[in-house]
Amino acid sequence: MTETADLGCRNLRWALALLDGLADGGLRRLVVSPGSRSTPLVMAGQHHPAIELTPILDERSAAFFALGLARASGRPVGLVCTSGSAPGHWMPAVMEASQSEIPLILLSADRPPELRGWGANQTLDQSRLFDGFVRAFHDPGPAEEGTAALKMIRALGARAAAVSQGDWPGPVHLNLPFREPLVPRTGCEPQRLAIPACPSPCTVPESDIPIPTSVRDLASHLSGRGIICCGPGTWSRQATEALWSCAERLGVPVLCDPLSGLRFGPGPEHRIARYDSLLRDPATAETLRPDWVLRFGRVPVSKTLLTWLTDLPTYLVDPGAGWSDPSHDVRMRIQTDPGAVCRWIADSDPSPADSGWLAAWIRAETDLDASIDAYLAESPWCEAQLIRDLLATLPPEEGLLCANSMPIRQIDTWSGTRAAPLHLFGNRGTSGIDGQTSTLAGLNAGGVPTTALLGDLSFLHDLSGLALLQGLDRPCILINNGGGRIFDYLPQHGLPDFERLWRTPVDVDLASLIRSFGIAHRTVEDATGFRQALTQSLADGEGNAGVIEVRLDGDLSRRIHRDFWTRLAG
Amino acid sequence: MTETADLGCRNLRWALALLDGLADGGLRRLVVSPGSRSTPLVMAGQHHPAIELTPILDERSAAFFALGLARASGRPVGLVCTSGSAPGHWMPAVMEASQSEIPLILLSADRPPELRGWGANQTLDQSRLFDGFVRAFHDPGPAEEGTAALKMIRALGARAAAVSQGDWPGPVHLNLPFREPLVPRTGCEPQRLAIPACPSPCTVPESDIPIPTSVRDLASHLSGRGIICCGPGTWSRQATEALWSCAERLGVPVLCDPLSGLRFGPGPEHRIARYDSLLRDPATAETLRPDWVLRFGRVPVSKTLLTWLTDLPTYLVDPGAGWSDPSHDVRMRIQTDPGAVCRWIADSDPSPADSGWLAAWIRAETDLDASIDAYLAESPWCEAQLIRDLLATLPPEEGLLCANSMPIRQIDTWSGTRAAPLHLFGNRGTSGIDGQTSTLAGLNAGGVPTTALLGDLSFLHDLSGLALLQGLDRPCILINNGGGRIFDYLPQHGLPDFERLWRTPVDVDLASLIRSFGIAHRTVEDATGFRQALTQSLADGEGNAGVIEVRLDGDLSRRIHRDFWTRLAG
C-alpha cells in the first residue's frame, strides 16, 4: 500500500510501459535534452534494457541528430524534452521529418492538466503543437496505476512506433503530463509489465504487393519516346534491378536525381546523371524532349530539369502520401511500391522506343562526361574538382551528407555516377539551411560512417551541432566562401546592400571556433591540400576526423560555372 | 502598361504598402534572416524611410533578438524570413512573446498557393503555424495591383501592429506568398501609397479607465491582515505611486517579485523583497500568514512564496487575458488596469489592518537584511555577494537581463531592494533556458543599456546569439559552474548518471569560443576580480564589453545556500 502511494514510482512504471511499447515497435534510442519534468521518461530509459540514451543540450540540435539517426538506422528514434518552449525547438526538424517521411517519436513532458492555462511556471499549451507535421498526436493524461492503464500506455507506444513507420512514415507526437513527485522513493521496483509483446504490424513483402488496376491503363501510355525520372527517394536492391530492366524494356533513359540513391553503385549505361548540364544546351534539350515522363519519388533538385519537364504528360508513382507535382502535369498518380510497378511494366511486354532514342541519350551523357573532364583539367580549382575527388575517395557503402543551397546543386551538376555504392543524404524535405552538423552526427551514430559537405552559412546556422562533432570518425567538409553564395546565382545578386542583407557572411575565426570544442581543424586551399586532408582525416578519423575548411573564392567559382554553362549553351 | 506587367514591381509595392501600415502602427525595426522568397519584404524595408533593417542569420536567434528589442523599445518589432522550415525556428521566441505579451510581427514569406502541397521545393503548410501562440493570423494571398488592394494590405499592416499592442498584447503572424520574379525590373518606381495615414487605435488614458462594478465588492474583502503580492508585470510611475498609497491605506506589505519592476527604484519601507528567505522559517511563516491576498501580474518566481500562498483567499487584478492562478485560490478576478484599482482602493477609505501587522513585516525584512549581511561577510564568495556587488554597480535606469533556472532564483533570494531604478528583464513567460544572449543583444539594440546574468547552459543553448554580442556596450556575465545547477536543488540530484543526463556540462573552451567571434573575454574567480572586471567592462564598454566568465564552485554554492536556509529555518 505504501508503494501504491508513491506517485514517483507510478510515473516511472507508466513511462517504462510506454518505452516497452516503443521498443516493441523497433525504437532503440532516445535523444534526451535536460529538464526536470521529463525525469520519469529519462529514468525509464535508464532502466530499459533495449534502449540507449543520448543527452543533447539544445533541443533543436537534438531533433536534427535524431533525424539523422533515424535515417541511417532505419528505425524510429525518440526525442525527450521538458515542458515549456523546449518542444518548440524541435519544430524545424519535425517539419523536415514530416516532409522527408522520417519516423521520429516526440515525447514532450508536460505539467498536468490542472496547471495548464493557469499561469503556472514553464507551462503552455503543448497539445497539437506540431499540427499537420505529425502523423498522429496523443495526450494520454497523467500516469495511472493498474494493468489496464499500463496496457494502454504500452499499446500507445507500440502504436506510435507503428504509425511512424506506416504507409506514410513520419513523426508522431505524444504529450506526456507528469504530476510531482517526479523521482520515486527508495524501494520502488520498476519491473516491466508481464503481458505478451505487442504484435508488430504486418508488412506485405514487396513481391506480393498487388498491382492496382490503374497500372494496367498505364502501359498504354508508355510507348514511344519517354523518360523515367527518379527524384529523391529510396530504392531497395530488388527494386533498383526492376527499374533498370523496366527502362531497358521500354528503351528509355533513367534520369537519376543525386538523392534518388541511384547514381552511385553499379548501374547500366542508360542511367543518366548529367541532365542538368545536358539540358542547358537548347538544341540538345529540344532533341532529347520526350513524349511522356514516368516519375518516381519526390521533385528532383535540378531547376533546369523541372523547367524542361513542364507541360509533358507525366505519370507519377509514389508509395506514400506525396503529390509531388508542382507544375500540375501529372495525368495519373499511382500510390504503390515503385519496384512492383517496374516489375509489372517489364513483364507486360511493352513496346519499346526506337533504338535511336536511348542511343542519343547515352551518347549525350558520354560526350558530356568527356567535355567536363576536359573543362575541369584546364579550369582553376573549385567545387567541381573537389566533388570529383571526394567521390573518388569515399569508401564504398559509406555516406555523404550534402547540405542544401549550393552543395546539393553542385553535386547534381558535377557528381556523374560511380560504380561503388554511396549513401547520399540530404535534408531535402524542407531544403533548409538548418540542422546540418547535428544531422551529420546523427547519421554517424546511426551506423553509416558519413562525411558532410556544407557551406559556411549552414555550418554557422547549427552551431549547437558543433559540439556533436566531438568523437566523429568522418570529417565535415566546410566550404568557406564568405556567405550564402546561392544568391550569387539568383536575381538578387548585385542589389544594394547585397552582401549585408542576402549573402550575410559571419565575422568569426572558424579555426578557433571549431578548436574550442576540441575538434580537429584543417584548412585547405587547393586540390592537393584537399586530397591530403581528406585522406588523412579518413585515415586517422578514429574519433576526431574534425572539420576540413576549404577556402574557396566564391566569385571565381561563379565565373567557372557561368563559363561552363555558356559553353554548353553555345 | 509595361510597368503593370512587372510582377517584381508589384511584389515590391505590395510589401511597401504593408510596411507603411506597420510603420503607422509604430513599427520601426525589421529583423531579417537571409532568404530569396522574402526579397520583396527586404527591398521594401530598404525603401521605407522609417524602417531600419537588422540582418541575423539564424531565425531562432533573430526572434529572441526581436523579443528583446520589442521589450526594451516598447514598440512592435517585425521578423522576416524565407519559406520552409525558416519560420519554424521562430517558435520558441513566439511562445515566450505570447506568454510575456510582447508585440512581435511575424512576416513569413511563402510560395504562392499554386505550389503549396504539390511537392515544390522549400514549401510546406505555413498557415496557422503558431496556432494559439499568436493573437491573429492572416494570409492575404499573393500581391495584387491597384489602390483597393494596396489599401487592404496597408490596413492589414496597421491592424497587425494595433492587435499586437492591444488589450492582450502579443505576436501576430502574417504569411505572405510571393510569386516570381521577386526582384523588380529596372525602372520600377516603388512610390508609397498616397492615402491618409491609418488612424491609430484610441487608447483610454490611465486616469480615465472606468472601475468595473465588481471592484466595489472587492473593498469589503480587503479588511484586516492582508498582503499585496506583485508578480512579473509592468507598472507605470503613476501606477507605482498608487500602489504604495493603496498599501499604506490598507496597512499591508507589498511583496515584490524581482520581475515586478518594483524592487529597484525609490520605494516605501512596506516594500518587501526578502519573503523567499523570511518564509523559510516556519515560525515566521506562521506569524506573517495573512487573511487575504491581493495579487497583481503573473505568478511570482518564488516557490516558497507560492506554496505559502496556497489556500489563501486571493483577489487577482490583471489588465490582460491572464488567469495566473495555478493553485486555484482566486476568488475574484478583475480585468482592468492595476493602477486604476489601487487608486480606487486608496480613495475608498478602506479599514486598515492593525498597526502591529505591517510593523511585524517591516521588522522581519530589516532583521533579515542584517542577518544576510552578517552571513555573507563570513561565507565564501558565491552568487550572493556577486549579485550584491552587481546591483551596487549597475548605473541607474539601466537594464539587467536575468536568465531562468538559477540566476532569477538567486536574484530573488539575494537582491533585496535598491533606491536607484533598474530595469530587470527576464524571459519568464515560458521560463526557458533558450535565447538569452540573443535577447540581451535585442534589449541593448532597443535603447536600454543592459547587462546579462546567465549560467553556462543558457549561454551554450544560444550559441548563435554569441555573434550578436559583437559591438555590445554592456557585458554578459556568465556563471560557469559546470552545467545546470538547478538540478542540484531538486530531487534528481544524486540519481545514477546525474551529471550526464541532468546537469549536462558541455566540454568546450569558453574563452576560445567567445574570442573566436572577436568578443572580449575576462575570467574572474573572486570578489575583487569580479568587481574589477565589471567596472572595466562597463567603462570600456564602447562596443566590446564582452563576456565576464565567473568560475564558481557549484557544490560550494549549494552548501552556502543550504546552510543559510538551515539557519533561517531554525
UniProtKB/TrEMBL annotation, chains A, B:
Mention any Pfam family matching this sequence.
TPP_enzyme_N
Reply yes or no: does the keyword Magnesium apply.
yes
EC numbers: 2.2.1.9
What are the protein's GO molecular function terms? 2-succinyl-5-enolpyruvyl-6-hydroxy-3-cyclohexene-1-carboxylic-acid synthase activity; magnesium ion binding; manganese ion binding; thiamine pyrophosphate binding
Menaquinone biosynthesis protein MenD middle domain residues are 213-400
* Cofactor binding note from Swiss-Prot or TrEMBL: Binds 1 thiamine pyrophosphate per subunit.
Q: In which pathway does it act?
A: Quinol/quinone metabolism; menaquinone biosynthesis; Quinol/quinone metabolism; 1,4-dihydroxy-2-naphthoate biosynthesis; 1,4-dihydroxy-2-naphthoate from chorismate: step 2/7
- Domain named Thiamine pyrophosphate enzyme N-terminal TPP-binding is located at 17-128
Instruction: Give the GO biological process terms.
Output: menaquinone biosynthetic process
Keyword terms, alphabetized: Magnesium, Manganese, Menaquinone biosynthesis, Metal-binding, Thiamine pyrophosphate, Transferase
Q: Which cofactor does it need?
A: thiamine diphosphate; Mg(2+); Mn(2+)
Catalyses which reaction(s): isochorismate + 2-oxoglutarate + H(+) = 5-enolpyruvoyl-6-hydroxy-2-succinyl-cyclohex-3-ene-1-carboxylate + CO2
For this protein, the record's HAMAP family field holds: MenD
What is the purpose of this protein? Answer: Catalyzes the thiamine diphosphate-dependent decarboxylation of 2-oxoglutarate and the subsequent addition of the resulting succinic semialdehyde-thiamine pyrophosphate anion to isochorismate to yield 2-succinyl-5-enolpyruvyl-6-hydroxy-3-cyclohexene-1-carboxylate (SEPHCHC).
* Subunit field text: Homodimer.
| PANTHER family given in the database record | 2-SUCCINYL-5-ENOLPYRUVYL-6-HYDROXY-3-CYCLOHEXENE-1-CARBOXYLATE SYNTHASE, PROTEIN PHYLLO, CHLOROPLASTIC
Family from the record = Belongs to the TPP enzyme family. MenD subfamily.
Could you identify this protein by its name? 2-succinyl-5-enolpyruvyl-6-hydroxy-3-cyclohexene-1-carboxylate synthase
Q: Which organism is it from?
A: Thiorhodococcus drewsii AZ1
